[in-house]
Amino acid sequence: MLKTQIKRQARVANLLTSLYNEILLSEYEDGAEITEAYIANKHGVSRSTVRTALSELIDNGLVIVKPNGRKYIKGITSKYIEDLCQTRSLLECEAARIILERENNDFSILLSIVGNFYSDLQEVNYEKRRKKIAYTNEAFHDQLFLMTDNRPLIQCRQSIEPILSSIIYLNASLDSSFNEQGYYDSHKQIVELLMDKDPNCIDYIRYHVREATFKDILKVIDRHTKAIKKE
Fold it and tell me: Which CATH code, of 1.20.120, 1.25.40, 2.60.40, 1.10.10, is assigned to 78-230?
């Protein structure tokens, strides 16, 4: 029973990742009707899996339901992405403020995660490197929030995490020489500033999670759009 539940949750999670990516990359036009049957057939999953995934997209405002029950895509604009990055920035800057004000902090996990960035960037397989970087990035920022021990703040972070994870995964497709974040150096800098109790850390995080992330996702979308036009 437990194994079946875990497998079902994994199928829903994988489908959600695919749908978030497709919506982010405008593979569905804004206002396009979407059906359970179409998604189930396209992704090779059951309609119950689709129903669960669509429920989350509806909660996040990416799919709207009309009074007649039909479902339509609410396209993601650059403003939506910018607003999302700004919201993430506000939450993360508050997490940094709490950590800076606390006398005793254990940075061992964050330091270990930073080391993982360096290892991830050495991975020669493109897809493996992309997944590793995205996973490590999420682990780093999750740990920042866990260090605050502020449950409401952590819950706020979790509410926007699914779409953020998709953005980070797409951003990880950029070659390290082209992205704005410089994964290893930027995260190492954040930890060092926090350990030094340097208030400039908040401004640095604000840039890292708002401007840099936003610029990177626009590059990914632009590249994807150009690739479609060439086909």
Answer: 1.20.120
Q: Which helix or strand (DSSP H or E) is residue 186 part of?
A: helix 183-195
Looking from the CA of 50 toward its CB, the CA atoms found within 13 Å total 15
Question: What is the CB neighbour count within 10 angstroms for residue 20?
Answer: 24
Q: Do 135 and 182 meet the contact criterion of CB atoms below 8 Å apart?
A: no
For residue 26, what pLDDT band results from cuts at 50, 70 and 90?
confident
3-state secondary structure 65-127: ECCCCCEEECCCCHHHHHHHHHHHHHHHHHHHHHHHHCCCCCCHHHHHHHHHHHHHCCCCCHH
> Is residue 231's pLDDT more than 70?
no
Check if CATH label 1.10.10.10 holds for domain 2-73.
yes
**For position 87, what pLDDT does the model report?**
94
The greatest distance separating any two alpha carbons of the chain, rounded to the nearest whole angstrom, comes to 58
Q: Which of 212, 174, 161, 175 is nearest to 17 (CA)?
A: 161
Res. 221: pLDDT tops 60: yes
Distance CA 173, CA 28 (A): 21
Contact 132, 140 (CB under 8 A): no
Measuring CA to CA, how many Å separate 3 from each of 6, 7, 10, 50?
Answer: 5, 6, 11, 19
Strand order in the sheet with 33-34: 33-34, 71-73, 63-65
